[in-house]
Input
Amino acid sequence: MFESLDDPVDVLTSFVDGAMRPLRFRWQGRVVPISKVTGQWNRREGQSVMRYFAVQGPNQETYELCFDPRGPRWILNRAWSGPG
Amino acid sequence: MILLVDMDAFFASVEQAYHPHLRGKAVIVCGDPSRRGVVTAASYEARPFGVRAGMPTAEAKRLCPDAEFVEGSPRKYVEKSLELLELFLTYTPDVEPFSVDEAFLDLGKLGARGATREAAIAMAREIQQRITDEHGLSASIGIGPNKLIAKMASGVNKPRGLTPLDEEEFRRLFWPMDVQELWGVGPKMSEHLKRMGIATVGDLGRAAESQLEQSFGLIGPHLRNAAWGRDQTPVIPYHEGVDPKSMGHEVTLPEDCREDAFLEGTLLRLSDQVARRLRGDGFVSRTLTLKLRDFRFRTITRQRALTVAVDDHLAIFEVVRSLWRANWKGEPLRLLGVSAGALEHKGEGEQGELFSTDDRKKTLQAALDQVRDKLGEASVVPAGSLMHRGTSGHVPFGAMKRKDPGSLSREARKEPGKP
Output
């Protein structure tokens, strides 16, 4: 099931040709390398654009990260914690 | 020829595309799964269990306990919908988004490339393939000589269906079916038609036009034409735009509720959301509708036409509250909704007041809108809309987590309307 977290996380991020891409993040004392960005979308909060990324970890587990430019800061919104 | 591209189980499929571990599993998209609400969408894997959109989440959990319940993200689906629109526009400029997961494509101006049934089928196949390859999603496509047939054909074979129909094939397929299968015929109209002895689409096609006109007025003859598969409605391209007919918001309450202050606060919040959308898109409304659903799932809607068009939350709230007070009998409520209809562009037909007494109010409203445009919806809200129980879910837009609702001032509690 998906677990709602809203945990602040440190994310190593690349900016290439104007495109932003999370590469790995530190969560609960471990580093999770991102093997694939599976989806991307934005949401406006006033003038700020929150950038969301659905990403896959090394064991096919998935997460949703959000970049909030008002911090700027990264938030881990959701993580899939296994079946049921 | 016209295509209707209908995305299969769209919200659930987007979740499956974005979260590969969900692929092949029963996925149910809903509100916060830990709270009460309704199913927004169910993947095809969940449907054999009887799970349908609109059903209470608790019932879906009972029917399909092993499903993945995923909280929906409207922005995610809207953005995907816009990406799909871009794909459709590579085939024809005449694309009419019909809903977040459906679009009409008019191939009429493409000459030989879109004129024949074979050409339309080939194009539809290519579109289906690109939707799968580029977005990891699937769509069913209906093909017809008009919007009505394309729309009804799209539902014939799902998921991943491709159904071309001409008028004759349409009649052969749909005439034996229940009249409610016809696009535009809802449950109430269907009941009415059945009382007239019209049970199938074919019965409707054979009915006397005068009889239909007598019962349904101007739309009577349109209904009969629709039963014959005839429809003149043009595809209105995306770039020309279509004004919305109404704007509304509704909320399923976390638990059945009969507390005055809580319900009024919720109505104020909904009125505020509707007013913000009206002003944001430059509309005013002349008809307001209140929707109530009680703990027995009985739904009533009550409407009031206004002599003066409105777009501010207090004016909307006052009308909605008076409708509520006149119609609520004290039974526990499950759902509240507010919607604004009979929309007009702001400024259109407005009677200017020679000596306006509410200029200050308008200036204040504009200033508050600017604050929210800049800082977000939760930055300024009517105080009365915070008069809820101590759960953060009741805070407008869910953006501000307040753990201590008792910290609201006494004044705020007394004056629900004040921003």
